[in-house]
Specification:
Strand content: 25-35%
Order of helices and strands: EEHHEHEHEHEHEEEEEEHEHHHEE
Bound molecules: coenzyme A
Distance between the termini: 22 Å
CATH topology of the largest domain: Peroxisomal Thiolase, Chain A, domain 1
CATH superfamily of the largest domain: Thiolase/Chalcone synthase
Amino acid sequence: MMSSILQGAHILATGSAVPDLRVNNRHLSQVVETSDEWIVTRTGIKERRILDDKDESIIDLASLASARALKKVSMDPLEIDLIILATSSPNDLFGSASQLQAKIGADKAVAFDLTAACSGFVLALVTATQFIQNGSYTNILVVGADVLSKWTDWSDRSTCILFGDAAGAAILQACPKEKNGILGFQLNTDGRKYKQLSIPYEKDNETSYHQTLKITQGKFKYIKMDGKEVYKFAVSQVPISIMQCLDSLKISTSDIDWLLLHQANARILDAVAHKLSINSNKLISNLSKYGNTSAASIPLALDEALDNNTITSNDKIVISGFGAGLTWATIVIQWKC
Ligand code: COA
């Protein structure tokens, strides 16, 4: 891969944002029949943030995360060439990235959405990397943002305990080939299993008539999930993807400094690390505070780990996203500051 690139790519800065409202497990036990003990034991989640202000949207979170990343490197938004917004909960089905472009004043940037649920941020990062490594663009803003609280069935205790709202951003910048920080990737999809985790479009019972047209319409409803199957999928497929990616780069698991997995469930994180014989003290996790924030979970955890100096210069980080689609995606980066 390195031999065919025109220029290197590296992450210059990250930023993140979460809503103010904290909902802990005790609060949830007043909404559905559950308990703090059950949720912590089965998932590792203690609380999550929920966007409740009717005037705030996913764009407010995404723009705050982006502004924080830009501020860290004093970058003018007009320097951004491209914005990729990974989200599965846009506030406009035609796409929300253009609203983000307008809100942060990145007037020269092309902007589009990328929908791949909890793998969205990794797929967006890989997409952005192509545009940089082939010489098309210099600065790309990659944002993972989701507000799955808007699509959660708050009477379904098997799903409503899992998710939270957040946004995370990363600025990817061109650099000399020798400084390339995006080492490789491995991507997968298995559409046959899409029903295991989805927000299906459901037809209305009534058919609308308009003059001669007979039209059946419907709407998107709530998250539906087969938790056991999704659990088995993640624990079996993610280690395979990581090993394939590391093998292609001739990197051994012992060379890895950090394992940053989509923050879905503490048991999944531990099981994947165990299968890879990676010590659990190399796992980056902030799941207990935010729950599963879908496309935001990886950049949110990455931003926190960089801010508190957990990740330091030259560290190699394996990042894997997995979820609805089903999709799963691994990227290996080396942190260069
Ligand atoms: N509180 C208390 N009990 C609950 C509960 C809750 N919030 N949710 C489910 N239960 C009950 C079930 O009704 C079931 O009761 P029963 O035995 O009387 O039928 C029991 O707990 C066990 O349910 P089960 O679904 O087998 O639990 P589990 O051990 O598989 O854990 C998940 C459920 C959702 C935590 C687990 O399957 C999981 O994490 N899956 C992966 C989900 C995920 O990460 N999705 C996103 C990927 S991006």
